[in-house]
Design a protein that fits this description.
With 464 residues, the chain is of the alpha+beta class. It has 16 helices and 16 strands. Helix 1 packs across helix 4. It comes from Duganella zoogloeoides.
Length: 464
């Protein structure tokens, strides 16, 4: 009896190079609109000024986060958590309504891949020219084109890394440091790290990031239902596929509207065939919709063989108005209601936020002592944070015990966005408070703006 034949199962298929064809149309224009909007915001925002400083700056050294007219501190971390929650709900809502529109139009991976593909086309040529160039042996011409492409990619990546670091270190200071070759080690690390990530993801890995690295592709189906707008191929109209038949030769047995030109596959940035149905690799960029509509225009056939539609719309032949009516379904209503509540709550919290913080820290080295005239004294340290961009003079007041008084100066001045520790001493008459701990309140009020007012509780110790 012969030995069984060994079967080799490959766990990972070698990557096949994808050469997306350039396309034009409504969704291509929309995609480039988002490229411009996102990149103008990303590259331009660090250069904006507000109150003579960078408008958007996350200064980790001083632990201050400047967001236009607002200054946040590490104690305001809750607002970052709320922002992440809002972003997550926005993603859930957008996905429930229109599938992976985030991936197809505004995801940084998609945006930078579009930019890098545009550079590649300008230097190496159209799809067929790029495919031919890669098959050719190395020559001076090929080396020159490849070198120019990678230098252009590298320039975009380095500027991207520089801009990213400019959100954490003032970008004008960074520009001076670049000109004087005075970059610090951390600046070098993060500029090169982010540049390498941009260059590698958008230049080399491309669709591999969407297929294998991005977790969203794996769990997106849990947010889809039969009324979610997705890129669909109308198989009833398109099948059976076949070559284009002239009108005078068409019969009742002529095939479907799909002429099997493969344009939808050639323009796909992830290299899938949308005619095989919804696949997790589809990023919803609608490039195949533009390509198919262009072909339908050329053969004088109705558009929409590939289009945004829902599974229910294809099965039940719903009209566009019926599709829109089914958009406002229970899942979408719940996402919208929760999102509105969170946004309203966060907005109210920011509006009512007092830009003044104070912590009262009792000196544990002096639990409470008797001083001259039999007075009882406690020592505290006030950690005061002026989070506004104006200097303020604050008045300190205390309450909670009838004879409680402040011995140290009652006013303190803080410069804009300054944090300072202020020692204070409180005294009360002997017998005015019971022995042990007594609850008191320390208040801080701005002299020039009484609305800036905070109050904290503390404990006054009377020795037993």
């Amino acid at each position: 009896m012969s030995a069984p034949e060994t079967q080799v199962i490959k766990m990972y298929a070698a990557r096949e190079e994808i050469y997306p064809r350039e396309t034009s149309g409504r969704y291509a224009r929309l995609r480039w609109l988002f490229v411009w909007l996102t990149q103008l915001a990303f590259y331009g925002t660090p250069w904006l000024l507000w109150n003579d400083r960078q408008a958007l700056l996350f200064d980790l050294t001083t632990r201050k986060f400047y967001i236009f007219g607002m200054v946040l501190w590490p104690q305001d971390f809750i607002y970052l958590a709320v922002l992440l929650i809002i972003s997550a709900y926005l993603l859930f809502l957008a996905t429930a309504v229109a599938g992976r529109v985030w991936c197809g139009f505004t995801c940084p991976q998609t945006v930078y891949t579009e930019i890098f593909l545009w550079i590649e086309r300008r230097i190496e040529g159209k799809r067929s020219a790029r495919m031919l160039l890669d098959r050719q042996p190395w020559s001076a011409g090929k080396l020159g084109k490849k070198t120019a492409k990678h230098l252009a990619w590298g320039a975009v990546a380095l500027w991207t890394g520089f801009t990213f670091v400019g959100y954490f270190t003032p970008i004008r200071e960074l520009m001076v440091e670049v000109q004087t070759f005075d970059f610090g080690p951390w600046e070098w690390f993060w500029v090169l790290f982010y540049a390498f990530a941009t260059y590698g993801n958008a230049g080399w890995m491309r669709e591999q990031v969407c297929k294998y690295m991005c977790p969203y592709a794996r769990f997106q189906s849990s947010m889809f239902d039969r009324d979610t707008l997705i890129i669909t191929y109308d198989a009833r109209r398109g099948e059976p596929r076949g070559p284009l038949v002239p009108r005078h030769k068409q019969t009742a047995n002529t095939g479907g509207a799909c002429i099997d030109c493969s344009m939808c596959v050639q323009v796909c940035p992830t290299g899938i065939d949308i005619r095989n149905g919804l696949q997790y690799e589809c990023i919803g960029c609608a490039a195949c919709v533009d390509a198919c509509n262009g072909v339908m225009d050329k053969i004088d056939a109705p558009r929409g063989l590939i289009r945004y539609a829902t599974e229910r719309a294809l099965d039940e032949h719903l009209t566009p108005s019926e599709i829109r009516r089914r958009t406002w379904r229970p899942r979408v209503r719940i996402y919208t209601a929760v999102l509105c509540l969170i946004v309203a709550g966060a907005g109210a919290a920011l509006y009512l936020r007092v830009p003044l913080k104070m912590d009262v820290i009792r000196d544990r080295g002096a639990m409470g002592r008797e001083v001259e005239d039999g007075m009882i004294e406690n020592v505290y340290r006030l950690q005061i944070m002026n989070t506004t961009e104006r200097a303020h003079t604050y008045r300190i007041s205390v309450s909670g015990i009838d004879t409680l008084a402040l011995v140290t100066p009652a006013t303190v001045q803080l410069e804009a966005t300054e944090t300072r520790g202020v020692p204070i001493r409180l005294r009360t008459a002997h017998g005015a408070a019971h022995k042990g701990s007594n609850k008191i309140e320390v208040a801080l009020t701005s002299v020039d703006d009484p609305a800036l007012h905070v109050k904290e509780t503390a404990v006054f110790i009377v020795p037993r």
